Structure formats: structure tokens, C-alpha cells
User: What shape does this take?
Amino acid sequence: MTDGPQNYTDLRSVEQYRKLLRNLHTLNATESHATLVRMLEGLLASPLGPEEQLEVLESARQTITFVQHEMSSRYAAHPLPPDSAEDATLRQVVRLWTALSTAYARLGESGAGSDEFRAQWPLLAQRRIQYLGQVIIEYFRAHRAEPQGSWKSVHAAYLEAERTGVAHSRVIDPLNNTWKAQSPDEAYIALLLIDLTNPYGRNQRELNWICRWAQRFAPYCIMQREWEKDDARAYGLDLTEDHGLRPIALIGSRPGMRRFDGHRLAAQIKAMLAEFKQGTTPASLGLGDDCSQPACARLLVSLYRPWGMSAAGRRFPRRSKKGGNMISTDWEAIGLLVSGRDFVSPNRHQTMDSRHDLNVITFGARVDDEDPPIIDAEAEIRQRGFHLDEWATVDHSVSGFRLQRKHPGQRIEHHQLVGIKPGDGNQYLLGQVSWLMYEPDGTLMAGIHLLAGLPSTVAVRGTGINVSKQEPYAQGFLLPEIAAMRAPATIVLPGGWFHADRTLELHTGEPRQIRLTTLVARGTNFDQATYELVAT
Assistant: This one.
């Protein structure tokens, strides 16, 4: 343990700072973090000159990155409410990134009059933009709205790099996994790429991959100051606004606007996807040793349009609307709300697991073939201890809802299947959580993508020589074809059930077999797939 706060302004040499960094291994992550914050905040008040201060900062970067990762892993797995126990951890991590970016910025100011130090301007600019961007990324990681002014700070640093003529000057960066070098505009573009990927809809692993890939692919993108013609779907950037790239069709052309050009990146992604089909591993393509197939390929496919093509126009316009929506996240409860009945395996008479069989054995009671419908399914699931939350509508379209919840409720996760009943409807639909984000006041915002079609429950089980007739059925959902939305008929299965060409047995009064064909969506607790009937 440390003996309390120390004054690091009296450290007189680079070697003393390096010794301090070497001794951090004796501390835990929290103590190391506090030491690094105090060291950085005291560095610029030390008697060291700009060159020596820069040497200290460069020596500390790898240690800071490691400690920050250890700290942020405490809250990165799930959206972080503002009043949670780890909220202080987020603030500490942001404080260190801010202190690091400030240290590089002030070095640029203190060494501005030195012709010798002018050679360090590209490095100072790149580091400053990189760490201002890390502040925003940290809020993505915690699924919290970015603080007001955070994007403007990054824009200002980029404009300063342009003003001094160093925006395109590459500098050595050992922490860049692919190139070991980066320019200020590449650091800036990497942040813009991350922002384009729906970061509030990504889990911890996906966001880590995206951050690494953004560094990998940034050199293939350009921020244009002038262009001859424009595609209304192109992305643009107004550096006076407090946000990242937006479709030019949405924000309109403005003086001083920059246009994002990622067509070279599109070619890179297409080439990588072709390599995957030939069996090339993600690691050999510079995507990372921890990247596994097919998750890596699916994620890269999802990034192809926002990164390399253009802003996808909304297929269905959003409309403002008020009202409440009921949401359930439990698989069993969703089935009851959709069908109005308890799910019971059709072969329950061959199993000894249900209350019906116990009644027959114990009391000789006759079991009805079908349970009577439940009059008030919502009251029934509440009585059984399932949660049913009300969310307010912010806006909606045919394909989904943007919702908010100001009160505590059931835990909800990215890519999770939910049952949702809109305020103006009387039927429960199936939806997938596409993103989550906490506002500063604790309001939880969510995007819900609707699975097209009115669902019905179905009993389903595997087939094959190893499947017994006594094998119970599981609950699934059928969604009909919706020709107007170009949505094929699909089946929604418990997570992990999909395998291409797998044959399943459905029971909708009579058993029949289907063959799974294409995976449509995969979430944390479900697989959605197209299928075809199997002749028997």
C-alpha cells in the first residue's frame, strides 16, 4: 500500500520518473492508477525541460495503457449507470486520459518558441488527438453519453494540427499494433471510424476489436476539404459541432465542412473477406491474435457499409411518438405473452418432468391435451416473479423503436431477444436490443429492432439417431414471410441452435421436419434463421 498522496513535482530527473514507473508493479491497479494521475499532473510543474518531460511521457505510455485497460475492464462488460459503484472508476480512467492529453498539449505550448522542439510537433499533435479520443472511447465502453464538449476538443486539436502543417506527418507509435506509426489525421480518422460503428450497440469484445481495426484501417481513409461533386449519402463533418461524422444529406453542406472518403477502405475489407473464404486466419491479416472466425467475419461484414461505402439512408422514416411500451426479457415469459398459454412439450406424456404427469401418477387425474388460455398473461407472469417493464417511446419507425426508461428495471443486454408490446398495440412482438446508452441523469436509452412479422410459439427439438422419443421439445417462435418488407419466413431458436443444414422437428399439432438454411441474426440468447420443409 502507498503511504498517501505524494508530491511528484520534486522529481529532478528522467531516471527518477522511470524508477517510479518501474516500482508500480508492486501496487495494485487502483494504487498504480492514482500514482500515474498524480505523476502526470505534477510533471508540468517540475523543473524538467520540455524535452525531458516528453521523454517521461513517452516512457509512461505503455504502463498507462495497461493500467487503464485493467481499470476499464471493471465496467466494460455491461452498460454503466451513473449511480453505480464503478461510476467513480470511469471518472478516474477519464481523468488519466485527460491528464495525458493535457500534458502533450502543454508541451507544445511550452516548446513553441524552440526551433529544435518544433520537430516534435507532429508527435505532440498525434498524441493529443489520440488521448482526447480515448476519453470519448471510454464513454462508448461504459455505454454512457459523451460529455458535452468532448468532440469539440478533438476537433480543435485536429484543426491545430492542420494550422501548424503537421496533420499528415507520421510519427513512431509503438502502441499501434499494425503500423507502429501514425499521423495526427490518422488518429483523428480512427476515432471517427469507431463512432460510425454503432459503438453503443457493441459488447466488450466487439468494441475492442473495432478500436484495434480502426487503427489498422485509418490510413485508407481521407478527410477531404474540397471535392468536385457529392453523393447525398456521403458522410460529412462540421468541426464546429459537438459530434462525429453525419450523413451530408442530414446536416446539409456547410462552409468549412470536411467530407469523409472511405472507398479505398471498402476495397480492403472486400479483399479481406475474400481471404477469409480461402481459409486465411484473421491474425495473419493483422486483425489480432484473439480474433476468431466466424465472429470476426460477421463483424467485418457489418462494418463494410459504414466504413467503406456511404451513409445508409433510413429504409423507414422515424416519427416522433409518445406512449409506453411493455418489455419482457425472459424467454419463457415472452412465449406466454406471445401465445397467451404456457409452453408445454407435446410429448409430455412420455416425460416425467411436468406437473401433469405427476398428477396422473399421484391422483389418477386426466390431463387435457391443451391447457386453457391465460386470460391476463401480463398479470400471470408478474405473479410468477417475471419482470415486465414499461419504456417510454422517444421515436419509432416500421423497423423499430428508440425507447427510454427513467426507473430501475430488469437487466437488459445488447443483442438480446425481447418481447415488446407497443402502447397502441395489443400483441407482443419480438425485438432485438440493438444499442444501449445511459444519459447523465441516469435515463437508460435503448434501440429495439423489430423482427418482422407477428410471432407464434412453436415446439422444436433436434433429430437424429441420438435423439430419443422422450426428448422434450423446447420453445421457439415462427415468423411469417412479409413480402412488402422483403422478409422471408424465419424461425427463432434458443441461442446456439443454428447450424447450417441442421434438421429439426417442429410440432404445431402434428410433427414435421425442417432444415435450417441461413442465419439471419444471432443474439446473446437466440438464433434467427430461414428454413425449408423436409419431405418425409
Summary: The chain has three domains: 1-197+207-213, 319-450, 456-533. The CA atoms of residues 495 and 525 lie 5 Å apart. Residues 456-533 form one domain. The two ends are 71 Å apart (CA to CA).
